[in-house]
Amino acid sequence: MKMFSRRSLVAAGCAVAMGIGSMTAAFAATEVDLILTNGKIATVDAQNNFVTTVVVDKGRILATGDASIASGYTASKTLDLGGKTVLPGFVDNHVHPGPREPLVAPGEVDLVHAYTWAENEKALREAVKKLPPGVWLRANAFRRYFTDAEPATVWINEDVKKIPTRQMLDKVVPNNPLIVRASQLVVANSLALRMFGITKDTPQPAAGDGKIEKDANGEPTGVLWYSVGDAIEAFAPPLPPTPKLSARDEFLGYKDFFVNMRHLGVTSLNIAAANQYTLRLYQNLQGEFKGELPRMTVQPGLRAEDFDALQKNLAALEGYGWHTGAGNEWVKLGAIKMFLDGGYTFSRPWPINSEPHKHVETYKGGWRSEPDYFYHVFKRAHKLGWQLGIHSAGDEASVIITNVLERVIKESPREDHRHHLIHVEVGPPEATYQKMKELGIGVALQPNFTYGLQPFFSLALKGEQLARNNPARTILDHGLKLTFGSDERPYGPMYGLYAAVTRRGADGKVYGPEEAITLQQAIRAYTIDAAWQTFDEKTRGSIEPGKVADFAVLSDDIFTIDPLKIKELTVLQTIINGRIFDTPAGLPNYYHPVQQPRK
């Protein structure tokens, strides 16, 4: 793509002017900041039109059309797209910013970078060298990273296609009790099992979601699921304090998160479950780096696990003094975020499902908050003018939340509330879909979960619930507003678009092809409709005159390539408010943050 300076364009214009004399005075061009030309630019307007040229000034789109519209303007910069495809900047409906991996304490080792068993062995050997025999070693193998070779956060390595056993750990760490946390499971070596009291004769837990994995001879493998893994972690001596980042390092770590999201073409994002400290931090970031970072909508997080928490949250609502929408175009308040159930990765209780979870046949999940407590918080928040965005992963959770919202909305009708359910990884029954339509309740889906969380879904779900996870087609067919985002699994819109269109999991299998949607529908869910969720559809989310100049320039034509290659696309340039940011060469098209101290 060619970039022309204003000086060169003006010089060329002067040369032409010499040939036509003073006639040019009557047709003086309007000076603008930027013209994008020679592109395949998807406007994502109501008709899904394409244009070749966009004129930008002072961060706003002035005009769109074919190349002829540029003749009326003189630009400080002209970006020749060379036929490249441009989309509106992506609007991610669900992110969790910030330094995610703290420094490790003595007696602890981080394995998230170790993608082969050999790399795990090396890291464990180095860590145990620093400890005397008999001292506990803890490891973290919670794969927040994401690659095609290792999509799951379950501890399975590229060269050993299974979860490691205690015998494998014993060869590396024989003289120290070792426990490795790997998302919803813990793997322990023989010494740790012996000290904790787990043997061949230890029975399975009588209730709950815990499980001691055993081999064909009844011997424990070292793999401890859920509550049993929690119990051995609690049994181990506590770690010494973890070193802390300085306030400035933490601040810049958050900045790095947003810069990486920008490299993925994300120009607006919805921050889930923030607090007063992080809200202030985001305001300070936008103040110091204004124009460099995506626009932020911040969801205050509230919980209501018990009566005391309920009272605190009601008091917090009264004390805010504002509601959804307060702020400016760079950082503002969004919906209140609350949780009913858990998630399919590390969160517990697990999602509330109508069917038992596949791996624990008697367990249907549990709630984090009592539905009656939800009613009181919803009612007050709704009356105060807040939008509500409620975590709901299981199908039964969506039923419960919709019923509570129905009660609140009917008691206090309010136009255009835009309340929505978050995740909906297992779709609710038909009656609930109909009720959501009647009440105007939307769905904030993360379509990349079909790909990135497929190993978890395969462990937990079966039948139709597995096949139709993240039911985008059903949601649209019921006339509900559907928005897209990422929620860490991984960050990167291309994986969400890929999964929404192909319905392929990380294992390459197609899950519920009837839930696939068209590429245009998927793009709208990740742009203009996601902007709707934050009440911004009139100012962003599409490439139309009057809207902010936020764009993503793609490496290939997403509309003509094989859909299976969508997840290979990268964003070459991201434009925020008319300012161009090049993506560093070689940067992957996904992201999950890792925080390290600055030198």
UniProtKB/TrEMBL annotation:
Record key words, sorted: Signal
Residues annotated as transmembrane: none
Signal peptide (residue range): 1-28
Single GO MF descriptor: hydrolase activity, acting on carbon-nitrogen (but not peptide) bonds
InterPro entries: Amidohydro_3, Metal-dep_hydrolase_composite, Metal_Hydrolase, YtcJ-like
Residue intervals of the Amidohydrolase domain: 78-580
Name by which UniProt lists this protein: Amidohydrolase 3 domain-containing protein
Top-level taxonomy: Bacteria, Pseudomonadati, Pseudomonadota, Gammaproteobacteria, Steroidobacterales
